[in-house]
Write a sequence for this structure.
């Protein structure tokens, strides 16, 4: 009888020794099950927040509301005009180049700054400039007009983007979504939050299993 008690206690100690983490009063299976439930609940909450709030917010922020206002300067060599350059209407740009500004009644905005990030490489930076009368900005003269940015509301953006030209001279399709591709979240449209939830939840479950296998070695055996 004495030998039997020693064997039983030794076996219990060995079973407790195979777990990297243990809480008193819970069996191995109870600990594993509670870990699974807590991990799944936390994963659902985190994935819902990221997929339906943080991710769409990040996508929408791809088209900034505030765009830079610029003044124009024409480079002249001899008697010939060579090119028009645009400089941000702020700081040292004004100090160095404002005296050479040619358009005294206007500031300029690049339409390439208004389109989504994925479309900008195909936008012609030398074209696609629109003029904004300084009077619309509350200014009476360019020298005194230190407004550096313009806020473009979402419902006005499409009006500004009409006629945007690409590098090859063709019309750019405004802010329309690109062709659907799993590699490009910008193309997922209204499905974006749901696809992102499935992806993040799958990755969370996979990582949960890895963590569980490290914390509870019986997890491997069951």
């Amino acid at each position: 009888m004495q030998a039997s008690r020693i064997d039983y206690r030794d076996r219990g100690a060995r079973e407790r020794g195979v777990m990297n983490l243990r809480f008193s009063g819970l069996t191995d299976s109870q600990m594993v099950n509670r870990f699974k439930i807590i991990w799944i609940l936390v994963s659902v909450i985190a994935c819902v927040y990221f997929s339906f709030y943080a991710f769409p917010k990040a996508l929408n922020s791809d088209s900034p509301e505030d765009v830079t206002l610029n003044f124009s300067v024409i480079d002249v060599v001899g008697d010939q005009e060579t090119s028009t350059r645009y400089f941000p209407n702020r700081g040292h740009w004004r100090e160095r180049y404002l005296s050479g500004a040619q358009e005294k009644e206007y500031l300029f905005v690049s339409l390439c700054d208004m389109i989504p990030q994925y479309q900008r490489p195909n936008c012609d930076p030398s074209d696609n400039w629109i003029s904004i009368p300084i009077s619309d900005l509350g200014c009476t003269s360019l020298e005194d007009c230190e407004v550096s940015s313009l806020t473009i509301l979402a419902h006005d953006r499409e009006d500004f983007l009409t006629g945007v030209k690409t590098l090859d001279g063709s019309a750019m399709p405004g802010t329309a979504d690109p062709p659907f591709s799993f590699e490009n979240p910008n193309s997922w449209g209204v499905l974006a939050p749901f696809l992102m939830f499935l992806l993040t939840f799958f990755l969370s479950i996979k990582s949960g299993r890895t963590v569980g296998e490290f914390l509870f070695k019986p997890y491997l055996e069951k």
Remarks:
- DSSP finds six helices and six strands in the chain.
- The longest strand covers residues 80-88.
- Residues 1-18 have pLDDT under 50 and may be disordered.
- The first helix runs from residue 2 to 17.
